[in-house]
Specification:
262 residues; Rossmann fold; two-stranded parallel sheet; 7-stranded parallel β-sheet; alpha/beta
Length: 262
């Protein structure tokens, strides 16, 4: 019996780890990618015990230049036949742009934009040739916003991911390959700590969703071939509310939400 294979970046925790559990439960073999090799190996071992899943581990820093091409070479050495690509790995930071460390900005752009783009580019030709395949790009509710003062690069990068996913989805119509953008709002993943966003009004104003809920919504939406998945009713309302008024209003609201609590 032929088993399908899914590649998941950012699989060592949060939404990526929850997606790995969902794919394994449905009989997929996995290629798990992240920097934290110990977590990946533990996850691979657990999935093997629970679901008899074959899970290969690739430990790689995807925030480096040309990481997408390097990762694709490592994936191809395992198997040339990928059924699903999940681009979940991402990073952010909170603070005024003029005070940001240049290296942090560079890493954010490489990981959130460049690696996702090139990995998708590498995966598509084989999927098109086989006339089957699914790509799930993890964007954000931020992608619908005109901008996010104090998270300027992150908001811009997620707008890119959403636009990019929609565009190539249209290009792929009729090929048997689908692209889905998952756009969660605030989610309890540990991301808020690494992004230094746990002390902002955004995380105080509303309760974050659980990573498991978000992952299931993304998985089910991808399997149904949806273009965009926004988990949660309030998030759906927020996704389309910026179009109801001037961008300046949304920018000011976001500035307040992303400011630190006193």
């Amino acid at each position: 019996m032929n088993r399908k294979t899914a590649v998941i970046t950012g699989a060592s925790g949060g939404i990526g780890m929850e997606l790995a559990l969902l794919f394994a439960a449905q009989g997929y073999d996995l290629i798990l990618v992240a920097r934290r090799v110990e977590r990946l190996e533990k996850l691979a071992e657990d999935l093997g015990k629970m679901y008899a899943t074959m899970a290969n581990v690739i430990a790689m820093d995807l925030a480096q230049p040309f990481a997408g091409e390097a990762l694709w070479k490592a994936i191809s050495a395992i198997t040339p036949d990928i059924d699903v690509l999940v681009n979940d790995a991402g990073v952010s930071d909170t603070g005024d742009f003029a005070a940001e460390v240049p290296e942090v900005i560079e890493r954010m752009i490489h990981l959130d934009i460049s690696t996702l783009t090139m990995l998708t580019r590498c995966a598509l030709p084989g999927m098109i040739e086989r006339k089957r395949g699914r790509i799930l790009n993890v964007a954000s509710l931020a992608g619908f916003q005109p901008g996010g003062p104090r998270m300027a690069v992150y908001y811009a990068s997620k707008s890119y991911v959403l636009s990019f996913s929609r565009s190539i989805r249209r290009e792929l119509r009729g090929t048997g390959v689908s692209v889905t953008a998952l756009c969660p709002g605030a989610t309890r993943t540990g991301f808020e700590e690494t992004a230094h966003a746990q002390d902002t009004w955004m995380f105080r104003w509303r309760k974050p969703m659980e990573a498991r809920e978000v992952a299931r919504a993304g998985y089910e939406g991808m399997q149904r071939g949806k273009s965009v998945v926004v988990p949660g009713l309030l998030n759906k309302l927020m996704a389309y509310s910026p179009g109801l008024g001037p961008p300046a209003i949304a920018l000011e609201i976001n500035r307040l939400l992303l400011s630190k609590r006193s």
